[in-house]
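ENTRY TYPE: paired fold submission
RECORD: A
CONTENT: sequence, then structure tokens
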Amino acid sequence: MASARRLSYLQALLVVSLAQGIRGPLLGQASGPQPLELKEVFKVFQSQYNRSYSDSAERARRLDIFARNLARAQQLEEEDLGTAKFGVTPFSDLTEEDFGLVYGHHKSLGKAPNVSRKALPEGRGESVPSTCDWRKMADIIKPVRDQKNCKCCWAMAAASNIESLWGIRFHQSVEVSVQELLDCDRCGNGCSGGFVWDAFVTVLNNSGLASEKAYPFRGDNNAHRCQAKQHKKVAWIQDFIMLQDNEQKIAEYLATHGPITVTINMKLLQHYQKGVIRATADTCDPRQVDHSVLLVGFGKSKSRARMRAEGAQAGAPAPRPRRAISYWILKNSWGPNWGEEGYFRLHRGSNTCGITKYPLTARVDQPTKKRPVSCPP
């Protein structure tokens, strides 16, 4: 905790230095001597996140990447229209390409299953509450998982979806096996990537999932033999559906049925610390989604969002709107030390980072007669 506070303090000092003229060189292409403030921040970063490098040349390269990432984080904070704070994170020594390869889907986006988007009855919009947070109900949302270097956000999001819906439907607390989804998956590629529908198809084919305790997560990239038949099932799904690409309808379903999975563009999450992200299509393309997470709620921020004034000069204070900012609450799979204790918030109402592209959810029920399921073409 003391290390985290020191890192935040040193980062604040460095931002002042950046504003006074260091920022230019950091954004340049050439490597070179770095300011003392930056080296101190990097040293604390290494200690806090247990980073070590093979040799001095690699350390110098990572320091240069770290410097560029801090400059990028400062730029993002200036451009963001929400209340988000960007800065040092566990991924600050990675290039954008490194980050995408390790934490993205890393699989060409295939065709989603041939399921129609679920249309909710008209005229129910007034039933959507102003706020909703399923974390406030006991034993519904399980602790934040950490996918480590395994590209299994798709499996973790699906597992979290099933756990929460099972708790709501049957008042039973369960933690299901992510490793079973990886080992027994016929459609995705285990730790090499996949999509939420791959996980749901696996659950249907296996007639349920074992518990996390019985079939624990390994988090490595080795291929493992499927052991589904060796373990008792603790949760099942009836089927899965895709919701309409409409944020009001998504909110209505979330509030009345429970958490759902969404797949977003994760580009800005590399530098995210806290607050509500409200990006533009230029900074977070809603068409390029590559990371699956669990949508657990929505609300309104007491802090007012930044708003750009037309013709405003660079560096001038941004005018503040009178209204608070609406947001979605999302559960990530990068451990509780990232973001807001493992969670993050996106602006609600502007399809930020493509949140409406693939809103998928399982429907849970007791097991029924098994039906054959095929991978999507």
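RECORD: B
CONTENT: sequence, then structure tokens
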Amino acid sequence: MAVQDESRHIEAELYDRLSKVIDPELGRSITDLGMIAAITSCPVEGGGAFDVTIDVELTVKGCPLSQTITNQINGAVRSYPDAELHPHIELSTMSSDKLSTLVAELKAERRQNPFTKPGTKTRIFAIASGKGGVGKSSVTANLAATFAALGYDTAAIDADIYGFSLPRLFGVHTQPTNLNGMLMPVTAWGVKMISIGMFAGSERAILWRGPRLQRSLEQFLADVWWGSPDVLLLDLAPGTGDMAISVAQALPNAELVVVTTPQPSASEVAVRSGLVALQVPMTVRGVVENMSYYDHEGERLSIFGEGGGERVSEQLTDALGVPVPLLAQLPLQTDIREIGESGRPAVLNDLGALDSTPLAGEFKALAGRLLQR
């Protein structure tokens, strides 16, 4: 094969190989997204090697994941089996016209709320509680991290507009990337997430009600590029207010998970959050009892009493006429607070893998039960 022909062959083969490189934010091939502007192959003097220059157009200037994309491209080039290739990656940014066209195509493909389309594969779990202080957000964060560590494409929406806490629990201090009006969720510990707490001015008190509150959820669903996650978790505000009703209306395929603690004062209120299903079309998937016990020097202490989760399960089963199982009884552990406050879900080790602790085992079992039909 002539050198010029071989160069063209290499360029064509590399374009095909780069079609397997996926943009980590958009979840689409970098060739499909038009990010590969040019590939040029030139022979190196004195040998059979080739210098390969790849012009990559990023969607935004200073893309935070540009190094990830570059590493994947380098890997695809260096692993080319038929010749020795020396990659040279040149990064630039898409023109505003090209980016506008791309975003328009993506929005047309998605069309509003992507989670209610026929055939959607996403399982949606809305994590609710009757009152604050039962560890609902902690359960949401650790459950999301568990799903991600198990290999599921996982997304989370902090739907607790008044008391958002997922950014802190995941150590997120950045804002979503804005692609001409379409937001990229922030990814932390393998979980794609969005929260009002990621935006400037979020430290102010929020007094949204009714339509404006519902619109915030609609924007989180429709104006964010989620791709096609396997699992979506929503951290709801405590109680049975506007957001719970909005979730039921926007996501009729969502499954409610009620979090309670053992004492009667919590379990009695938790039942009310599950009874929302009598007013709106929402399945109650089950009950999680948090802070169930504390292990101390070989003795299991019931600090907050016993039986709350079972009471909620039994009452909801009777009221709804369908089984509402007690899915898990989670321990009271200081690790959940100490590690969680540091910005890492307690079920993960410092490398981001699922830890080998009993707590991680409990959440792994909970994740498995939730995915059972």
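NOTES ON RECORD B: The first strand starts at residue 36 and ends at 43. The chain has two domains: 3-94, 114-371.
STATUS: closed
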